[in-house]
Write a structure and sequence with these properties.
Elements: E1 3-7, H1 24-40, E2 51-61, E3 70-80, E4 84-94, E5 100-114, E6 119-120, H2 125-132
Antiparallel strand pairs: 1-3, 2-5, 3-4, 4-5, 5-6
Length: 133
């Protein structure tokens, strides 16, 4: 299942070269990850006991993005380990002719973490069930 998050490009996302700065992509992945997680897992989560930490992220840039582009981030679950899970991303530009262009791809690994005990914990079963549904 691919989850779609529309992105509003802000003027301050654009650098001196006239395109969206590469660091902004990480912020868009974060925004999409939060919306994806809220819409798939949702519910009342005790973030101190069953939170998560971003352990790794990677991005491959395909084509520049500009201020007036219409952008969405598509997010989906990839795989799970004992205490971690991976999400995948595509930043898609909606073209005027109705086609789509992949502007960037990426992934992130989140480690489930108990902040009260300061240690990784297994991926909660209800999270895994929702992520894999």
């Amino acid at each position: 299942m691919r989850h779609k998050t529309e992105i509003q490009i802000r003027f301050n996302d654009v650098d001196a070269l006239g395109h969206v700065n590469n660091a902004v992509h990480v912020t868009w992945f974060e925004l999409a990850r939060i919306r994806f997680f809220d819409d798939t897992v949702g519910g009342d989560i005790d973030w101190e006991r069953e939170g998560m930490i971003l352990a790794h992220t990677s991005i491959s840039y395909k084509t520049p993005i500009y201020l007036k582009d219409r952008i969405e981030v598509q997010t989906w679950f990839s795989k799970s380990g004992t205490t971690s899970f991976e999400l995948m991303y595509e930043i898609i530009r909606k073209e005027n002719d109705g086609s789509e262009t992949i502007c960037a791809t990426g992934s992130s690994v989140q480690v489930c973490f108990n902040y009260k005990e300061n240690k990784p914990v297994p991926v909660p079963e209800r999270w895994l069930a929702a992520l894999t549904a």
